[in-house]
Amino acid sequence: MKKIILSTIIATAGFICFSVVDTQKTVSNPEFLLKNTYAITLGYDKSMGEKTIKAAVIDSYFREVAANGKIVRWNKTTFPLKVYIQDTPEVPGYYREVVMSAYQSWERASEGLVRFEFVETAEEADMKCYFKNTNDDKEAIGSQSFSLSGDKIIDSTINFKKTDNKGHSHDSKQLFSSALQEIGHSLGLNGKSPSIYDVMYPIGTKFNTEITARDLKTLALLYSVVPDVTNVALTEEDKSQLFTVAEILNTLNVPVDDNTNTAEVVANDIATHLALAEQYRKKAEYDKAAEEYQAVAQMKEDRRSKSEVYYEVAVMYLDAEEFDKAKSCAEIACATDMNDLTDTLSALIDYYMKRSNSAVEQLEAILSQNPYNKHAYKLLCQIYREKHHENLLNSTIKRYGKTAGVIEE
Questions:
Q1: Choosing a second label site near 224 at 20 to 30 A (CA), which of 46, 77, 194, 361?
Q2: What separation in angstroms does the CA of 147 have from each of 18, 65, 126, 139, 155?
Q3: 149 and 258 share a domain?
Q4: Of 216, 239, 262, which one is at a domain's C-terminal end?
Q5: Are strands 142-149 and 152-161 parallel, antiparallel or unpaired?
Q6: Short-list 326, 245, 309, CA closest to 273
Q7: What is the mean pLDDT of each successive set of 10 residues along the chain, which is 409 residues long?
Q8: Are 169 and 133 in contact (CB under 8 A)?
Q9: Cα dihedral sign for 29, 32, 38, 40?
């Protein structure tokens, strides 16, 4: 089998329009304090060179957002948006606080690119959050939808389930992770990230409670293009300072839509191989995607980054339930570089194959040897949450939360 890598770890050599700042500010709920967050100062504009924009597009999932049709986002001049979060005795008291904390996290991580103001009534709100019972058996905790009038956003609504499908209250981190993603949708991030690290990754292989640089790059690009649908129409002067979607995507000089005949495309750089791989992946043609990812892998020099992308390819095949190929990718990742991430691969595979007991044994062993392995910690916590082993979950958080987790004093 050919070596495989996944696109989402691909790094760019170019500079990005982000300032790395200290976001360790005092907040009321320190459990959800974000670490290692890249803060946005302005986003992207036409004063920046094509290489800067190209680098940002490659290292984001803006193409996924653009591929979903019309750009739907708020007019930046109308921030802060008014947010209503239902206060009801029918759910635990921490539900409302957790959702509020998720909004604050987006505002803090983006350094004010998006801003919110909490209000007491739904009638005055732009964004509304409710806790409701549903009859579906879907695993998702939350769902989001826009109310539109033609090309105008009226409001956005997020509905969170009161309980999971077994009638249990949601764990605070489960709810927080879901809230981050649904707020992302409310902001206009209607595309799904293919990276397991990002808040907007659609499948919960772990609880993503950290807004990543890729999430922020995508958000910044989204708010640097002319929207098709927004809440307040942009002036012609406003539009003149923004990109069109085509201008952003054309910096890649590669096919980016679903109608492209991929067989006719000749790839000779990372961006082209990446675009082709993503098209094949969307069509579930994983082996063809693997060939394109392999081409990108050959352009990489750092063993650590290679191992990380092999890890994500293993996850891609796990999601497709192609377990033999996932195991082969895992072997490549471990052979390339053994680190905290690859050390958890065997347990992750067992988890996907519903061998939870084996996965737990491995993860416990990993953490006993290395209590700083956040990947093992998060996966172990997820398994205990899914099994509703509250005592084991609390014990794990107590033992490793301050070393491998995100809990601060």
A1: 194
A2: 32, 19, 10, 24, 5
A3: no
A4: 239
A5: antiparallel
A6: 309
A7: 34 30 34 35 69 82 86 95 95 94 92 93 97 74 94 96 87 89 95 82 66 91 95 92 88 66 78 79 87 80 80 84 93 91 92 93 95 89 86 91 64
A8: no
A9: negative
In a shared domain, residues 288 and 216: no
And the tokens for 364?
């416990």
Q: Cα 389 to the chain's mean position, in Å?
A: 27
Q: In whole angstroms, give the CA distance from residue 178 to residue 200.
A: 9
193 shares its domain with 301 = no
CA–CA separation, 14 and 52 (whole Å): 6
Residue 40 lies in a domain: yes
Does 218 share its domain with 283? Answer: no
**Which pLDDT belongs to residue 54?**
82
d(CA 152, CA 127): 14
Distance of CA 323 to the CA centre of its chain: 24
Residue 231 and residue 78 in contact, taking contact as beta carbons nearer than 8 Å = yes
Structure tokens belonging to residue 335? 């052979």
> Which residue, of 239, 268, 290, is where some domain finishes?
239
234, 261: one domain? no
Number of domains in the chain: 2
Structure tokens belonging to residue 316: 């891609």
Residues 394 and 339 in one domain: yes
What's the CATH code of the domain at 300?
A: 1.25.40.10
Co-location of 318 and 344 in the same domain: yes
The whole domain housing 387 covers 254-400
Question: 2 in a domain, yes or no?
Answer: no
pLDDT digits (tens, 9 = 90+) for 91-137: 998 999 999 999 999 998 888 899 999 999 999 999 999 998 876 66
C-beta of residue 134 within 8 angstroms of C-beta of residue 164: no
Nearest C-alpha neighbor of 77 from the set 244, 239, 191: 239
371 preceded by a cis bond (ω within 30 of 0) = no
Q: Kindly state the tokens that stand for 208.
A: 């993503």
Whether 333 and 298 map to the same domain: the answer is yes
User: Which of these, 399, 344, 337, 408, lies nearest to 368 by C-alpha position?
Assistant: 399
Q: What is the pLDDT of residue 297?
A: 78
User: Where are any strands of DSSP class E within 70-161?
Assistant: 81-85, 116-119, 127-132, 142-149, 152-161
Q: How far apart are CA 120 and CA 86, in angstroms?
A: 8
H runs (alpha helix) in 13-163: 50-58, 62-67, 94-109
Query: Which whole-number Å values give the CA distances from 251 to 51, 149, 256, in the listed order?
Result: 8, 33, 11
